[in-house]
Amino acid sequence: MNEWDPQVLITFFTILISGIGIVLGTIVPTIMQGRAVQKALDGIARQPEAKNDIRTTLLIAMALLESAAIYVLLVILVLLFANPLIDRFF
Amino acid sequence: MDSITPQVVFNLFGLPIKSTIISTWISMALIIGAVILMNVFKPGLAELIVSFLSNLISDIMNVDSPEPYLPLIGTLAIFITIANTAGIIPILVSPTSDINTTIALSLVVFFAIYYYGVRSKGLFGYLRELASPIFLLPLEIVGQISRTLSLSLRLFGNVLSGELIGSILLSLVPLFVPLPLMGLSMLIGILQAYVFTALASVYVASAIEISDEKIINKKGKNQ
Q1: Residues of B in contact with A60 (CB under 8 A)
Q2: Which of A3, A6, A51, B141 could bridge A89 with an S-S bond, Cβ 3.0-4.6 Å?
Q3: How far are the Cα atoms of A3, B43, B101 from residue B74, in angstroms, in the given order?
């Protein structure tokens, strides 16, 4: 029983890495998005007439920050649904 | 594997036709039909949409007239909005939840950037500005490719995650519980269409903008 099937091992580590990865990969971009929103709200409170410019820039910056979390999600989706490593041991 | 790759519906001349292609055709037909109906019955509404889009583009790009850029960027905005929200209709899947669609859309933007850059500055002017410090040229090329890739992957990931959350919840609790999340995914889809449009306009604007040296030179000549 000490011998592990490589497929079982790969599946186990894939699930483990997916859980850890999605947690870390969403925490960090969310903290940074919070900082961006905080600065933008400070800017709007200081200069309400610059609201439209700040909003456009904020939306674009938020999308760029969000894409880091989306990349993590895509890598994990590929690992879970289309894992290229499992076929290697057949 | 089945849930993130679209299913093949039928084969046409040896080419597999997937479900996302069929929903792309249906959403194209929806857009064309809606435009024809609007032109016949309510011309004011179409004018409102066009003026909204041209205001958006001229706000982001800081240009006087958005006329040359309106056809491409406005079409992208309308098609991506309809395509992202098409997943709400029960039989259809969102065309943008297939990575081939989003890569095609961002390749259009990739080539349009060079077209507008060459058109506004001439071939050699644009190339000279692209390689203005010559040692930064490899970095510039990597930047051009990676922003195209990120443009397509961002749209794909957002729409696909919305669809996956909807289908997982639908298999757990079929009634009423998936509704708020479907609303959220619709909101995210419209926001992503806005973001794609805004980023495409920013990239085109970065290709057509006049560099600071030229502005300073012009001012110097005028004074």
Answers
A1: 195, 198-199, 202
A2: A6
A3: 60, 17, 17
